[in-house]
Each structure stands twice: as structure tokens, then as C-alpha cells.
Amino acid sequence: MKRRFETFLDMSLWISALMTLLYHFRFLMFVDYEALREKSRADQVFYFFTGLGHESFAVFFVVNGICAGLFLRNTMPARGELALLGRWWRSHLALLPVLVAGGLLDLIGAYFFNGSGLYSDFPAFSTVTLSWSAFFGNLFMLQPALVPTFGSNGMLYLYAYLWWSCCLLVLLRRAWRSGKPWSMAIGAVLVLALASWMPWTFWPWLTIWLLGVAVGLRGPWPRPLLHPLAAWGLLATAIVFSRLAGARTDLLPAPWGQVLMLWKYVLVGLGFAAVAAVLYRNPITPAADAAAPSFLARVNRHLADSASMAFLFHFPLMMLLTAIGADLFGHALMQQPGLLCYVLLGCAVTLCYAAGHALVRWIGAPFCGARPIA
């Protein structure tokens, strides 16, 4: 794989994880934009970029899909789909200690640091469900269709969406490649069974992930499918539109406003996939790819190695840090922006990302198969 493209995937992966952390921390530590007393230019820029949470989710899904597509492309066709599921399953085994650790952090926060009411009075932000049914349901990827997400970790629903997207791709490819009517019929029945119990919110994220799979499987291209400026313009337009539309459901008559609010992220995924396709090109320059990676390239790789863990499992630590700050240090939730708030935000985000890196080192492999595959 061309090093420039791999660097682009690495950088996109950790930036999307970082933006996700900023997005969630901002909702806990800062007031909503409408409640700002003074809307300085710096505050406006800060709120715009830290509001790109779901747009960052879309970028993460496309990169994950690209990696799955690259894996299938570089694996023998006879075993590619099963090997992809096996790769996912091996990384999924790490979920057990991570779920346990997250549950322990939530128990500590709920019992000892809930003076601010963070764990009990903010159900719109995170509902803390620490039941055994939720634990085992999340372990077998049944959230959010059959059980709630475990503990405070609301991001676990996206993890399940990634898993079921991978399963659906494997089912469809195996059924199609077999060419046998009975095999295709079984595949269709299994797809329909999956569709019958997955929530409707699953399908936009599946679409976004499949956009990435298409880039990984079909590239590299001898010439760009779009002019680079057109691809970047499409991505920028999609991001600005998504950000300005926000959570407004009154832009279209019901129920289309609700549909637009979710499917607008597909436009962001499409824009990012277009940029990725432009960068994933032939010919590959052997001399450039054989050169030793620079220091910045190695840092970029290490940040990307930790991105999936930080993206999917930052919630319990984030909640605990915020609760400790409120109970022990009197730092109230949802404050007006200020220098101290910005400094504390930077420290908290850094600590959460470092914890994700430590978990990856402990587990011994990047999580959920989301790293680029050369």
C-alpha cells in the first residue's frame, strides 16, 4: 500500500478518535452554545469543531471499512471472508476485560463520586446500566437491539454496528461467490433475519462502512475518479451542511426531518470516501515506500494504534474524571468557557487517549481490526 495513503488512514483514524473525545467532554464540561454569555470568535471556532462528533464517527467508519476492504483484497478469495471474521473475533476477545474495567470505573463513580448527579441525573447524556443481562448482551454484540449499552459507555452501540456490518458483508459475499441458488437463498434469509431485529439507525452506519469497503476493495485507481479539489470540496460541503443542520428535525416535514438528521452523516462518509479514493492511486513508488519511516510517521502510527480503543471505550473514564473533578475539586459541570476549562479539557482528553494506548499495549494488538493493512 502506498505510504502516503497509509499515513492518511492513520492520521484520519486518530483525528476522528480525538474529535470524538473532545465532542463528548465538551458536553460535560461546557455549557451549550446557546447558553454562552459571550460568543467570542475563539469560542465559536471551538464549538464548531468540537461539535463534529458524529461526523468523526462517519470518518472512523469509513477508515474501518477501508481496512476491511484492504484485508479482503490482500487475502486469498477462498478464505478472505472467514479470515476477516476471525481477525475481528480475536480482537473482540479483548472486550471482556475492557467491559469489566469500564463497569468497575462506573461503580466507583456511581457510589463514591456522584455528588454532581452525573451518573443519575443526566439520562439524556448517558444511562448507566450495570446489569448482568446488559454485560453479557454487550459481550455478544446484542446492543442496542436487544439490550442497552453496558454501563455508561454509550459508544458500544457503534462497536456492535461495526461487528454486524462485518457479518453482513461476509454473508453477502459468501452467498454471492458460491453461485448456488440454495446458498444464495440461505444468505438472503440470514440477511432478512438480521434486518428484522436491527434498529433503523443501523442502516446509515452500515452504508458508511460499506463506502470504505468499496474503496479498499476496488482501489487503487490509475487515475483519480474525481479531481482532488472536487473530492475535498465535497467533503467540506458535507461537513458544513451536517454541522449547520445540527439536530434540527424541522428542516423537512415529519418524518423526513428525522431521517435527514441521521442520513446526513452518509454524505460526510461519501465525501471522505471520495478523498480516500483520490489518494489511493497507482503507481506505487517502490523507492519511496521502502524508505524508513520518519519520527513523525512513527508517532502517527502509534496514535492510530490506540485510536480504536480511545474511540470506543473512553466513556467510563471520561465520566469518572468529570465526576472526580466536580466532587473533589469543585469544578462544576457545564461551565462557561474559560482558560482553566480549556486546560482541564486538554488534560482530560490526553489522559483518556493515553489510557487507550495503555490498554492496547496490555492487550497486545490494535483493537477491532481498525488498523490499515499493508
Please summarize the sheet with the most strands: none
Strand content: under 5%
In total, the number of domains comes to: 1
Taking the alpha carbons of the first and last residues, their distance comes to 5 Å
Computed over alpha carbons, the radius of gyration is 21 Å
Topology readout:
Layout: H1 3-29, H2 41-50, H3 53-73, H4 80-92, H5 95-112, H6 132-139, H7 156-178, H8 181-197, H9 202-218, H10 228-245, H11 256-279, H12 286-290, H13 295-313, H14 315-329, H15 339-363
Overview in brief:
The protein has 374 residues and is mostly helical. The protein has helices at 3-29, 41-50, 53-73, 80-92, 95-112, 132-139, 156-178, 181-197, 202-218, 228-245, 256-279, 286-290, 295-313, 315-329, 339-363.
Notes on the protein architecture:
By secondary structure, this protein is mostly helical. The protein has one domain (3-31, 39-369). The protein is 70% helix and 0% strand. It is built from 15 helices and no strands. It has helices spanning 3-29, 41-50, 53-73, 80-92, 95-112, 132-139, 156-178, 181-197, 202-218, 228-245, 256-279, 286-290, 295-313, 315-329, 339-363. α1 runs antiparallel to α3, α1 packs across α13 and α5 (95-112) runs parallel beside α14 (315-329). The termini are close together. The model has no long low-confidence stretch (mean pLDDT 85).
